[in-house]
Design goal:
The protein folds into two domains: 209 residues, Rossmann fold; 72 residues, UDP-galactose 4-epimerase, domain 1. 39% of the residues lie in helices and 16% in strands. The strands form five sheets. It has a six-stranded parallel β-sheet, sandwiched between helices. The chain has a three-stranded mixed β-sheet with strand order 13-10-15. It has a two-stranded antiparallel sheet with strand order 1-2. A hairpin with a 5-residue loop joins β1 and β2. α2 runs parallel beside α4 and α4 packs parallel to α5.
Length: 337
């Protein structure tokens, strides 16, 4: 890497590093998925298994605390993965982010710095860092392009989490410049699917609505009350689609700028609630508590960069919700609280 060339990328950013050409990953190489039991990580493990990867490595938080720097470095030295997806993070909905901003900032920065530093130290060849669409300004022009990053104020209810994720993007870009490693970042839209967090206080909107309506059906409740006005528009992507996009990017994309990953379409929270209520068989009334915050009025990602890279979503929202509801009911007794 002593003779790096300056390369101009299609995203308008410049890398000082040796030539790297994306291509099919070695199915026999060790592949570490950080956060392998979570919503995205578990979907990535399923995708990698289906794609023929033979050595997929994961560790639970009880087995490896990613906030423990020494433990993380020891793990990487022992495993020596060739590839890595950093999907581990402390995540939560509006209430959790608003109540515990220090935790979301501190925990996520420590996780990211430890994993990225250890991966760089042991020479991980290809790494994909996963962020969140909350990195973009609250009032960014819709649909949100990748170059909207750092152009305006963040949504206050999750700004601490967003800052941590922005730090991760810049960390990956810095590694590319300083060490010449072809690492990349992807920013998913709102995700849902198997192994999500269905906690009534810490979950995101779609799993929270599934739990709320399912419990209403079970108890025979005549009504459900949701936060806000129901008017904000959100884009959703099934976690299996996200996993498919991750492998596609690892094998087909190389650039310093983060890549938006989404469906390219959005809908209102009210419409999402109606779809979930129907899928669960809830026939009562839905009320909206307008004293609670709505969050960002609209968040739709521009996915043209991803489309140019050759990937589009395959799982429609109706199908995805029905599949997720079926999974939820099958696993409701063993869900994360």
């Amino acid at each position: 890497m002593d003779h790096a060339d300056v390369q101009q990328r299609g995203d308008g950013m410049t890398d000082e590093r040796p030539f790297f050409s994306p291509g099919e990953l070695d199915r026999t190489a060790s592949f570490y998925v950080a956060g392998h039991r979570g919503l995205v990580g578990s979907a990535i493990v399923r995708k990698l298994g289906a794609a023929g990867f033979e050595t997929i490595v994961g560790r639970s938080s009880a087995e490896l605390d990613l906030k423990d720097r020494s433990a993380v470095f020891e793990f990487f030295e022992a495993i020596k993965p060739r590839y890595c997806v950093l999907a581990a993070a402390k995540v939560g909905g509006i209430m959790a982010n608003s109540t515990y901003p220090v935790d979301f900032l501190s925990d996520n920065i420590r996780i990211q710095v430890n994993v990225l530093d250890a991966a760089r130290e042991c020479g991980v060849e290809r790494l994909l860092f996963l962020g969140s669409s909350c990195i973009y300004p609250k009032f960014a022009e819709q649909p949100i392009r990748e170059d909207a990053l750092l152009t305006g104020h963040l949504e206050p209810t999750n700004d601490a989490y967003a800052i941590a994720k922005i730090a991760g993007i810049l960390h990956v870009q810095a590694v590319r410049r300083q060490y010449g490693l072809p690492w990349i970042s992807a920013m998913p839209t709102n995700l849902y699917g198997p192994n999500d967090n269905y906690s009534p206080t810490a979950s995101h909107v779609l799993p929270a609505l599934i739990r709320r309506y399912d419990e209403a059906v079970a108890s025979g409740a005549e009504s459900v009350t949701n936060w806000g006005t129901g008017s904000p528009r959100r884009e959703f992507l099934h976690s299996d689609d996200m996993a498919d996009a991750c492998l596609h990017l690892l094998e087909n994309y190389d650039g310093a700028e983060q890549v938006n990953v989404g469906s390219g379409t959005d809908t209102t929270i009210r419409e999402i609630a109606e779809t979930i209520a129907s899928a669960l068989g809830f026939t009562g009334e839905t009320h909206w508590d307008i004293t609670k915050p709505d969050g960002t009025p609209q968040k739709l990602l521009d996915v043209s960069k991803l489309t140019r890279a050759g990937w589009t979503s395959k799982i429609g929202l109706q199908e995805g919700i029905e599949r997720t509801v079926a999974w939820y009911r099958e696993h409701v007794g063993a869900l994360r609280a």
